[in-house]
Amino acid sequence: MNDQVTSTIAPDMVHTNLIGGRNLPASDGMTMDVLSPADGALFARIAAGTAEDVDAAVRAARAALDGAWGRLTATERGRLLMRLAGMVEAHADELATLESRDNGKPLRQARADAVALARYFEFYGSAADKLHGDVIPYLNTHFVGVERVPHGVTGHIVPWNYPMQIFGRSVGAALAAGNATVVKPAEDASLTILRVAAMAREAGFPDGALNVVTGLGRVAGAALSAHPGVDFLSFTGSPETGTAVQTAAAKNHVGVTLELGGKSAQVVFDDADLDKALPVLVNAIIQNGGQTCSAGSRLLIQRGIFDEVVGAVAERFRTLRAGHPAREPDLGPMINGAQQRRVLAYLERARNEGLTIVSEGVVALDAPAGGYYVAPAFLAPVPHESSLSQEEVFGPVLVATPFEDEAEAIRLANGTPYGLATGVWTRDAMRSTRVGRSLRAGQVYVNCYGAGGGIELPFGGFGRSGHGREKGFEGLIEFTTTRTIVIAHG
Ligand code: TXE
User: Fold this and answer.
1) Does 438 sit in the ligand 1 pocket, CB within 6 Å?
2) Burial degree of 68 (CB within 10 A; 0-12, 13-18, 19+)
3) 260 lines ligand 1 (CB under 6 A)
4) Which residue, among 317, 319, 325, has the nearest Cα to 371 in the 3D structure?
5) Could you tell me if the CB of 78 is within 6 A of ligand 1?
6) Does 237 contact ligand 1 (Cβ within 6 A)?
7) Gap from CA of 220 to ligand 1 centroid (Å)
């Protein structure tokens, strides 16, 4: 952290909070450095938001609810979101460049994220006035209506791996439902969210409908989770921080959706179409450098084809290149030094445990020395009980484990504390349905793997992966509650 603005940073790279429509520095004037993961160089500064800033943002949100934002009809809210969708789409290249620099993801992935963000706003914007309640048959002398209403002020704590997409799925839904929002982006990737929030003002969102406070999780994030003026929280991140957020929310008796990552398996049966499966199996762990909550980080392969599949995956891994995000590598750097060290520590531990790295990719020779690069690694066979099979690495590390039959495949696939997504590869339609319906995962893919994909598809987990659902219509309902009105007329 630093409170000096130095000449090494372009003036348009010094960012403030957005509170009640005003660009404001942190209440104590402190800022945080933003480093590029590609080379470790300082290139921007953000406000180190304080509890006071969070309080001001929550008050601004409440004022918006009681004022211009709260007066809008669902159709008007939807139109604003659709307008914002168009602006995001028109600025997709600019947003992608900013995201790629801030987060280190390859440009093509960053562009896909910007397009997905536009689509979230379109999806939720067009759904805003289709979210209606119910009429309940009751006594003949009474009319009962159940109205869908927003929670009020919603807090959104966003991680750094897919800032635009996660902002889109939670804030887009919350705004469509009529909530006023306060967003705390991750300290390592706040810039696109700030840019899109500025666009929302241009699109005509009333002041205070969308507030952004940047800064440290343990300061600004903790203040948002514990604020008594917040009516509902959405959190995506680590299980440990999720526990802290839910504990804070419990003290205020408000609800939370938690999306806490996973250890997702891809189950490959011996009748699978391997030509179709192989590129997907590799991409599911390489996309975003493995820093994807639903990354397919475990391969479960039926014994009879284990060596063949391991050999083919190993061959692909040898061709993978981690490199500068602007040069369209297979994967960019890790988000920061801590994440890079975490992944390398897992690999070191695996070596010490005697596990075999069957194949590794490379870090490109021209990757800048100060960047946080990790060469992708594929390990096999890895026992189901080992930490690499049980814990989320959040990096380009894939493990393979053999299984004998359907029952064992299901036991292994379900055999971690997580339950976010699973892939099943088989040509047997009966088996795909049978196995698919036995899996304890929020999403099950058969002969494909969306890595959390699909704006329209409900997404969320079981167990340590969290609870509540985002994305799709389910995600819109999550940001509402009900009011039942009972009218006696006879
Ligand atoms: O997560 P944190 P980190 C997993 C992944 C990764 C690990 C650590 O395994 O290696 O978590 O990443 C805010 N109160 N995932 O340390 O701390 C923080 O500012 C309130 C999986 O980055 O959970 C950021 O905005 N908020 C994952 C957000 O929480 C707090 C995505 C996430 O940070 C806070 C990211 C606090 N006390 C990491 N402390 C996924 N599910 O996709 C931090 N934050």
Assistant:
1) no
2) middle
3) yes
4) 325
5) no
6) yes
7) 13
Site to substitute for ligand 1 among 238, 245, 258, 263, most atoms within 8 A of C-beta: 238
pTM for the complete prediction? 0.97
Give the CA distances from residue 22 to residues 13, 16, 335, 411, in Å, rounded to whole numbers and listed in that order.
17, 9, 29, 53
Which of 259, 392, 470, 478 is flagged as catalytic?
Answer: 259
**SS3 at position 231:** coil
> pLDDT truncated to tens, each residue of the chain (490 aa)?
333 434 467 877 889 999 999 999 999 999 999 999 999 999 999 999 999 999 999 999 999 999 999 999 999 999 999 999 999 999 999 999 999 999 999 999 999 999 999 999 999 999 999 999 999 999 999 999 999 999 999 999 999 999 999 999 999 999 999 999 999 999 999 999 999 999 999 999 999 999 999 999 999 999 999 999 999 999 999 999 999 999 999 999 999 999 999 999 999 999 999 999 999 999 999 999 999 999 999 999 999 999 999 999 999 999 999 999 999 999 999 999 999 999 999 999 999 999 999 999 999 999 999 999 999 999 999 999 999 999 999 999 999 999 999 999 999 999 999 999 999 999 999 999 999 999 999 999 999 998 657 999 999 999 999 999 999 999 999 999 999 999 999 8
Q: Write the DSSP assignment of 318-370 as a string of letters.
A: HT-EE--GGG--SB---SSHHHHHHHHHHHHHHHHTT--EEEE-EE-TTS-TT
Residue 396 CA to ligand 1 centre (angstroms) = 18
- Indicate if 147 belongs to the active site: no
